[in-house]
Design a protein that fits this description.
20% strand; ten-stranded mixed beta sheet; binds 6-O-phosphono-beta-D-glucopyranose; single chain; Dihydrodipicolinate Reductase, domain 2
């Protein structure tokens, strides 16, 4: 293939250069929630400063609270960015007060969208962002469908113009509700227009998992049960439940983090190479991983999981209350703030390799990482004493807040002895790249506007992830034993440590 053909190959263009998204209007349902001002508007504004969205881009926020366009613009104004650029961008930010259960809201919405298309040249392209409880997804989509808003308007070009829908997490609250939700929404909108968001998939370091595995030749040959002893996926936080206890107390760590973010990380680490990076191949491969995950019988749950709740303790030297003392938490709550699960994948590559997933609030520090722990060397040639055990090699994909990759290996300590010490070879995003990683939401919003769903969840994958989670939820709900606790600011419950030690393995220190 000549260079000329490579340059004009549209697939390669798609891979190498970021495209400016088509003009469109983004309608945010639930716009008064903090997601809009914390994530959505700052991300869209950052995209516009980088000219990755069209200058015509418009945003229409909807919720029940009464704001004028001006008040809404002030409320969502990001803290950083150029003031002149914000003035220009915010001219396309609008607000409409309305109850998303009422038909009348959608009649007004339709007229407002036509006005925006007319005044700002958004060409009838629409992105509906549903930042509301999952129960409300079918209601909103039903009304949009009734008003004909799920197809481009009559004055748009049916070939070029589009309507897409982003669904904020959580997608359902259990297996039954997620399955019903898929059924209800797919009756109204085809899968090709649905973008189920999981912000972990938009993180630069998460996208790099596939690049690391499949753009290099040196790791893949050892990426299997012959060389890997186990994999640890950790998402630890030092924050507590903050202002979100009302939500969290009904959810808990398993539904909040494991069912979605951590299982997504597992799928990316475990999947087979996709046939292509440009079609649905990546999502197909992820679904195959979810299908291979072992589903536990009720009696197998206790031995494969640990859950606990944080008690009082210290974070950064300051005393913090225990979970049961937090505002809006029931004093009898049995909601877990820590969850650890051992998963197995019943397939050729991973048979017998445990994947340990753990997450918790109020732990020693914020760290998200994937540690691939290799089998020890078969023979110890360099120990100080005969019978010394070799620690294993560990490859750590650091997802955040520190972003990078490190490989741990043994090195002879300089000098006259034959003793070894473990050292790390580190790659750090901050020192290797001049520009910081874009926020996850910016990447995901841009992908949706250019019509690339690769980093969004497909309906089948969400249901499959609920399939492996549900038996754990059921067994935990039936268990009346006292819930273990852990001191805030520490490594987690003692039970999780012994659970690992019993298998001759250790959690990495947070
Ligand atoms: C959210 C959870 O999905 O992810 C939160 O609801 C959690 O409880 C957050 O704190 C963690 O995300 P990140 O990107 O900070 O690791």
């Amino acid at each position: 293939m000549t260079n000329a053909t490579i340059e004009t190959n549209p697939l390669r263009e798609g891979l190498s250069s970021a495209r400016t998204a088509d003009p469109c209007t983004i309608v945010i349902f639930g716009a008064s929630g903090d997601l809009t001002e914390r994530m959505l508007i700052p991300s869209l504004f950052a995209l516009s400063e980088q000219r990755l969205v069209a200058p015509e881009l418009s945003v229409l926020g909807i919720s029940r609270r009464p704001f004028s366009d001006g008040e809404f613009r002030t409320k969502v104004k990001p803290e950083s960015g150029n003031a002149t650029n914000w003035d220009t961008f915010s001219r396309g930010v609008f607000y409409m007060s309305g109850d998303h259960h009422q038909e009348e809201t959608y009649q007004r919405l339709k007229a407002r969208l036509e006005e925006i298309d007319h005044n700002r040249g958004t060409q009838g392209n629409r992105l509906f962002y549903l930042a509301v409880a999952p129960d409300d997804f079918p209601t909103i989509l039903g009304h949009l469908s009734q008003q004909g808003l799920l197809d481009p308007p009559s004055y748009a070009d049916p070939e070029d113009n589009w309507v897409r829908v982003i669904l904020e997490k959580p997608f359902g609250i259990d297996l039954a509700s997620a399955t019903k939700l898929n059924k209800d929404i797919l009756r109204l909108v085809p899968e090709s227009k649905i973008y189920r968001i999981d912000h972990y998939l938009g993180k630069e370091t998460v996208q790099n998992i596939l690049a690391f595995r499949f753009a290099n030749t040196i790791f893949e040959p050892v990426w299997n049960r012959r060389y890997i002893d186990h994999i640890q996926i950790t998402a630890a936080e030092s924050l507590g439940v903050e202002e979100r206890a009302g939500y969290y107390d009904h959810f808990g760590a398993l539904k909040d983090m494991v069912q979605n973010h951590l299982l997504q990380l597992l799928a990316l680490v475990a999947m087979e190479p996709p046939a292509s990076a440009l079609d649905d191949s990546v999502r197909d491969e992820k679904s195959k991983v979810f299908k291979a995950l072992r589903i536990y019988k009720p009696e197998e749950v206790a031995e494969n999981t640990v859950r606990a709740q944080y008690g009082p303790g210290f974070i950064d030297g300051k005393p913090v209350p225990g979970y049961l003392q937090e505002k809006n938490v029931s004093p009898e709550s049995r909601t877990e703030t820590y969850a650890a699960v051992r998963f197995f994948l019943d397939n050729w590559r991973w048979e017998g390799v445990p994947f340990y997933l753990r997450t918790g609030k109020r732990l020693a520090r914020k760290v998200t990482e994937i540690a691939v722990v290799f089998k020890p060397a078969p023979l110890m040639l360099f120990g100080a004493n005969e019978g010394d055990k070799l620690d294993p090699n560990v490859l750590v994909l650091r997802i955040g807040p520190e972003e990078g990759i490190s490989i741990r290996f043994g090195t002879k300590i300089p000098g006259m002895t034959r003793r070894l010490r473990w050292v790390n070879m580190d790659f750090d995003y901050g020192t290797s790249f001049a520009t910081p990683s874009p926020p996850a939401y910016a990447r995901l919003l841009h992908d949706c506007m250019i019509g690339d769903p690769t980093l969004y969840n497909r309906g089948d994958a969400v249901e499959l992830a609920w399939h492996v989670t549900q038996p754990i939820l059921d067994a935990w709900a039936a268990d009346t034993n006292p819930l273990p606790t852990y001191e805030a600011g520490r490594e987690g419950p003692r039970q999780a440590e012994t659970w690992m030690e019993d298998e001759g393995r250790y959690w990495r220190k947070l």
